[in-house]
Every structure is written in C-alpha cells, then in structure tokens.
Amino acid sequence: MSSYEASPEDSLLHMDNATFNGLLAIGCLATLSFIFTSGLLGFISWRMVTWQKFYTSSIGHNQSIVLIYQLLLADFLQSLGFLISFYWASAREIVGPSDACFVQGWLIQLGDVSSAFFVLAIALHTVYQVAFSKSLSHRGFLAAVSSVWGLALLLTSLAPIIGGRYIFERAGVWCWIKSDHESLRLLLHYLWIFIIEFGSIAVYTVGFVYLYQAKKPGTQFRSDASLESLNKASRAMLAYAIAYTVMTLPLAAGRMASMSHRQPPDSYFFFAGCLFTSSGWVDTVLYAITRRSLLFKEMPGPRPARLSLSDQLGTRRSGFTRQNSTDNILDEDASGFSGIKLETTVKVDVESPTSSMAPNHDYPSHNYSVSAKRHTIRDEMV
C-alpha cells in the first residue's frame, strides 16, 4: 500500500487490544453515519427528481433543504474516511505514509472543512431570511454553494500540493497531516474550524436579538412569516451549529494541545474520534426532528386534488356552491403543510307550486344537489 518503507515514527506496526477496540468503535459509528446520511441523501434526491408527484414546485429550489443536503453530503464524505478504520483494525497496524493513509486523511479533512462551511452557511441563510424576509436568487444561491465546495476542495488539496502526496501520516489512531507541518494544520484546517464554531454562534445570536427586538410593541416587523414560525426555524438551525461544535471541539482542542507539546492520551482521541464521526447520524436525526420548522416559508404544499369534468360541470350549473365553516380545519397553514379539507355544497330544491295556487298547470320540479366531498391529504413532506 505504500511506496515508502514503514517506520515506527510514521506508523503503528504493533497494535494493542485497546487501540484495536477503539478503532472498531470509531468504525462502527462511522458505519452508522454512512448508513444514515446515504439513506437520507437518497430519499431527498428521489424527491428532487420526482417532485411533480408531490409538490407544486421543485424542492430543489428550497434553499434550506439544499443547504442541509450539502451538509449531509459533507458528513457522508467524512464517514467514508473513518470507515478505513476497519482496514487498520483488520491489519492490526496503521501504516503511514501510504495510499490508504492518504485517502483517509484527505477524505476526513474534506468532510470536516466542508461541513464546517455549510454549518456557517446555514446560520447566515437563516438570519438573512429572518432579517430581510427573503432568500437569495436561485442563480446567486447556486453560485454560493459552488463557491463553498470550491473553497473546501482548495483547502484540502493545498496540503498534498505543498507537502507532497504522502503528507498524511498516522496521527494517533487515524491519518492526518504530518506533525512537522503544524503551520499547514493550523492554516488549512483548525483556524477555519474555530472561526466557524464560534462564528456560527455569533450569527445566531444576532438573529435572536433581532427577533427579540421585533417582539417589542410598536416595532415594525419586516418578515411575512409569523414570529413564532421564525423562532422555531432559528432554533432548529441553531441545533446544527451546536451539534457541530459539540462533535468537533474536543478533537480540535486535542490537536491544538498536541501542537503545543501537551499530548493527550490515546483514550482521549478515541472518545474525540467517536464524537467526530457521529456527525452524520446526529445531523440526520436532527433533520428528522426539525424538518417542519425549517420549512416555515419556502416549502410548497402537495398538489391540490383535481375535480373530474362532471364535478366541474355540476358545480358550474348549480351556482350555489359555498364553503362550509369547517373548510379550513387542518388545511394548509403558514408552514406549507396540509391535512384534511372538507368541502360542502348547498342542496336547493325548487318544488312545484301547490295545487291550490295553480290547479290547472303542471310545473316541473328541479332538484340541484352536489354531494359533499371529503379530501384527505397525507403529510408527505420531505
């Protein structure tokens, strides 16, 4: 697997049972993240392709969904990198530098940096919606997403460009940038991680302060959505930033301690690695819990049921259709979700005149009626 001869400094050639068990734990959590993220990515991709069956407009234009989709894709790449832990455990050694070490280090860095950028992008997008009650244009949004991926790929690729193909070596129980390239570790990774971790919290603080000010009497609120729905969306998005910080801060702190020549024990990195690779399944669970709150404005509802030709003609002839007072029960709300809609019509009977008033004439009897319809719409939102 390597064109270099393995050395004790760059490799772990004799793995003890504690390290073996730690790698298995990291690999199992990476597998869980891989399954969760790949499943949700597949489901959302399917809904993006078949949106006409479920929605009135493409969910690919829903910017909140697209940003979370990118975050899940970043988590997916990170989980792929940590799946190589099974390879090291089966070989009972971690050989670096090597091709496997390069792939693992590159995937983990790309996944971590890109997920950090999209956590910040979600924060900025949410606060922008709250403050200005609008989103970016579709072209501008696609350009922003492409730029984020471009920056993440650039930072990840600069390490092998500057330090060579085998710049990734064993760093604890997985592969990372060599310890003698501390400046690259800091400038290409940790500096950005710390900026985004604390920057996201600062951005959300601004958003919550804006919402707090908007609640004061006499304050003109610019958004079309309700304060309650915006509060729910902001709290939901904040959960992603908090989860990312909790998952990544222990590992980043441990690496910074190593750079300052205070090496934490391997058990600390086992714990930090387990948290780190759990980002995928944690974000997937968060999406399942918060999806209704995230789609407070942009998500289109299901396609309305179409009346048959006979129903349309019958309605036009009668001219007496009206909505019942219960029509809006569980109907479409501000968040775009639909439930049960009841529609009724008035039945009008025009009876023939009584015999006492018109004994010598036969008047036809007209009966106009339209049976009540009941439409049940299942909640099948993404």
Automatic annotation (TrEMBL):
Keywords: Membrane, Transmembrane, Transmembrane helix
Compartments reported by the entry: Membrane
Membrane topology type: Multi-pass membrane protein
UniProt xrefs under InterPro entries: GPCR_Rhodpsn (IPR000276)
Keyword Membrane included in the entry's annotation: yes
Transmembrane segments: 20-44, 65-88, 108-128, 140-168, 188-212, 233-253, 268-289
Pfam families referenced in this protein's UniProt entry, alphabetically: 7tm_1
Highest taxon above the source species: Eukaryota
Protein name stated in the entry: G-protein coupled receptors family 1 profile domain-containing protein
Species whose genome carries this gene: Apiospora saccharicola
